[in-house]
Amino acid sequence: MNIGGKHSNLIRASILLALFVLPFTKTVTVLAQEHKSSGVTPLSTAEEFEENKAAGREQYFLDILQSGSEKDLQKAYLKGLAEFRGMDNSAAFKQQIGAAWQPLSGSQDLHVSGRASSIAFDPNNGNILYLCSPQGGLWKSSNKGSSWVSLSDNWPILAMGAVAVDPNNSKIIYAGTGDIDAVGGGVVVVGGVGILKSSDGGLNWTSIASIANVGNYTKQVIVDKNNSQSIFHTGANGLTHSSDGGATWQRLVNVGGLTTMAMDPTNSDNLLLGGAGKLRHSTDGGATWVVVGANLTSFGRATVAIAASNPQRMYASLALSNGNTGVARSNDGGVTWTLVYNADQNSGYLGQQGWYANAFVVSPTNPDIVLGGGLDVWRSNNGGTSFIKKSEWTTESGASNYTHADVHELVYGPDGLYCLSDGGVFRSGTTGDSWTQDLNKGLSLLQFMGVDSDPDMTFVIGGAQDNGVNRAKIGATNYNQVLGGDGGRTYVSQSDGGMYVYSTYIQADLEKSNDGGTSWEFGSTGTHNIITNSSLLSENLPFYMNYAVSEADPNFVAIAGSNRVYYSNVGGEDGFLPISKSGQISSGPIAVHIAKSDPTYIYASSHSGYVFMSSDEGTTWKKSTTNIGSAFAMTTDIQNPGHVYACISGFGGNIKHFWVSTDYGLTWSSPATNLPDLSCTAIATDSRGDIFIGTNLGVMGSNDNGVTWIGLKNGMPLVTINSLQVRGHDKYLLAGTFGRGAFRLDLTDFPTLTGVHTQASALALDAPTLDNIHPNPIDLTASHSAKTSFSIPSEGAVRLSIYDMLGKEQRVVLNEYLTRGRYDRVIDLGNLSNGEFFYVLTASGRTVSQKIIVTR
């Protein structure tokens, strides 16, 4: 959340920190309404104080999702998911065999991967790690973090709060969905779907708890090492427990807001709970609770811990209501408490981030050694009375004292201390004296707001949450950060070889490069912001500003202010002038678009649901006669400025998510017949007439003017899409995701999408191969096992799955990081019914398949 990365500066830090202390009463109300609608008690006064600080980004995402009539976001998400799953995927599945989305580059500078929320360790194998991310899903490493594979690419949601491994059976893994920091940080917009369980080391998963059981958000999943049937879940609904391995659940403590729990490693009946501004203690496994620490200063978020070497020693890391950092300690097993540390916002380890990042851990061997994390990691050698800084987010990433800002979890593993932050996962010795970032090099968890490339697609560049602006050459293994802070929408000029690049920081802050994103101009204020207009700077813009650049001439730039549209035809060099009057665009603009073929045509969508068009660079405006709803993104035909497309964000009611106009935005129609109710926030077209929209469950495409749609799912997880561009001279579709980095799709691999593309050969030199399965057909009454072989041309993640004829995945049989070569595998087909199936191999950016017939 705070600014991170090697190019950050103190000016940006002061701007962002000042933003978070502004009052945002309206947003807190919206948040409380969201919690009420999903069965969560409204926030306490203390928690509301902390929530105010997060309102800038939270309001941005709530505006996106709540623009429809449905205000229960979780209900709307599940409805859209059901409709998405109900689409006829047979045609989509068949035409995608042979092509897959390819991830573009990986982590940032090999040291920063994006936000991580929880880590778990295999109790029998110190090399195996499980890591989850708020919008990047669940990952597994079999070599202590040197390489990773995703376990959740086909999951319906990638918002993850916690992962846990059964301490008595390492094949059993639990994944708690819904990131709790959405409640306080605003960087995740949809809660989870409950708890998922795997019994085969993460290959296949089933749901064991719904949101009705455990709520929308997860902070922890804790399995009792003395009784694996006893499972605890903490999150936004307090504390929930299962005594039968997840078959049934009981709410033990029903409080609103974030809740954390600590279990005594020597006595699993001894529990400490922090939540809703109170500490609670139980000595009977959670059956009864006593509120303790009533003498403590008022606080919001609390992270609790029990010392393994002396369970009488208990701690609570407190985000105090006055903004200070507090550490409360009990020396008598939770009976009495003392506030042993009370530091102000500028000197405490939480900084001003306690409402969002509050991590705390006790040394497993010494009850006096504790470590806390907010902006950085700090250590105390005297039981929390004083702390020494042990990491520094403002230093160069890769340095031995570097961990990324905003620490969400500190936990001891079999080989030292792990720190999870907005930059990924970092490992240290037992006391945090030095840190390694090598665990991040194989991860791609960047939460991009916008991604673009030059017209020849030689490089890609994008702005990411808390990870600035990132640039990579196509084919490179990592991004290089070229600007720090919170990166937003990024645009690369298409008429001059990609020399002009624009990106954004928070609110009214536009950044510009004249050399392809290598260096950036300084504005008059001494920062990289080229906006000088006092009127625009004073408008209450969204956290991530919406703007448009002409594809014909990058000097034509339009900005959607909160009340007016601003414009420059000289690249902002003389400021941005308001070209619409206050109130002229009713309820204020949401998005702007400059027609691709003629920059004098400007379109602006509005909160009122109408679209406004100017054909003279904003001198006059016309209002559409059709109300299409809140269009979050628009685009035009590459040759016709009057042919306009729009996509609608939000959920609920009879909202129509795709609209098209052929008369310069005056009238609109919505021809789609099978679009599910998903929030749509990006749109792109190519010269052949193909249309692509980005949703909260990936990308969809249409080749019949938007009447029928298919999900372009192969090789990309079901992740939120924030930007789409057709680049590489119409060859590639480029997607920026919120949590899984950037991807590109080779459009020539889709012969049926337009009818004119040339099918790429599945036997290309860079493609994997998959042999026929044997025996085929297979009689499952005789044997459940069949054999196959495959080869992969390059090192990387390899996935082998069984699909039915409609394209629904039935079973994952292999998901590993493998080196180049040929492999033999035995496949278990025992759970399949009679019929025809595909077994599908995805590797090296390609997908190949073979058919198998199953009989009984």
Descriptive report:
The chain is mainly β and 856 residues long. The protein contains 10 helices and 62 strands. It is globular and about 75 Å long.
Overview features:
856 residues, mainly beta, 5-stranded mixed β-sheet, 4-stranded antiparallel β-sheet, 10 helices, 62 strands, 9% helix, 37% strand, disordered N terminus
In short:
With 856 residues, the protein is mainly beta.
Question: Which strand order do you get reading across the main beta sheet?
Answer: 56-62-61-58-59
Number of strands: 62
Q: How many helix segments?
A: 10
The general outline is globular
Overall SS class: mainly beta
Radius of gyration: 26 Å
Q: Determine the N-to-C terminus distance.
A: 55 Å
In round numbers, the mean pLDDT is 86
Main beta sheet strand tally, sense and closure = 5 strands, mixed
Q: Which range best describes the helical content: under 10%, 10-25%, 25-40%, 40-55%, 55-70% or over 70%?
A: under 10%
**From the structure provided, what is the oligomeric state, counting identical versus distinct chains?**
single chain
Topology summary:
Layout: H1 10-20, H2 25-37, H3 45-52, H4 55-65, H5 73-85, H6 90-96, E1 102-104, E2 118-121, E3 129-133, E4 137-141, E5 149-150, E6 160-165, E7 173-177, H7 181-185, E8 195-198, E9 206-209, H8 211-214, E10 218-223, E11 231-235, E12 238-242, E13 250-253, E14 259-264, E15 267-275, E16 278-282, E17 290-292, E18 299-306, E19 314-320, E20 325-330, E21 338-343, E22 359-362, E23 370-373, E24 377-380, E25 388-389, E26 407-413, E27 416-421, E28 424-428, E29 435-436, E30 448-453, E31 459-464, E32 468-473, E33 480-483, E34 491-492, E35 501-504, E36 510-513, H9 534-538, E37 547-549, E38 557-560, E39 565-568, E40 577-578, E41 589-594, E42 602-606, E43 611-614, E44 622-623, E45 631-636, E46 644-648, E47 658-661, E48 680-685, E49 691-695, E50 698-702, E51 710-711, E52 721-727, E53 732-737, E54 742-746, H10 751-754, E55 769-770, E56 778-779, E57 785-792, E58 796-804, E59 809-818, E60 821-828, E61 835-843, E62 846-855
Parallel strand pairs: 56-62
Antiparallel strand pairs: 1-54, 2-3, 3-4, 4-5, 6-7, 7-8, 8-9, 10-11, 11-12, 12-13, 14-15, 15-16, 16-17, 18-19, 19-20, 20-21, 22-23, 23-24, 24-25, 26-27, 27-28, 28-29, 30-31, 31-32, 32-33, 34-35, 35-36, 37-38, 38-39, 39-40, 41-42, 42-43, 43-44, 45-46, 46-47, 48-49, 49-50, 50-51, 52-53, 53-54, ...
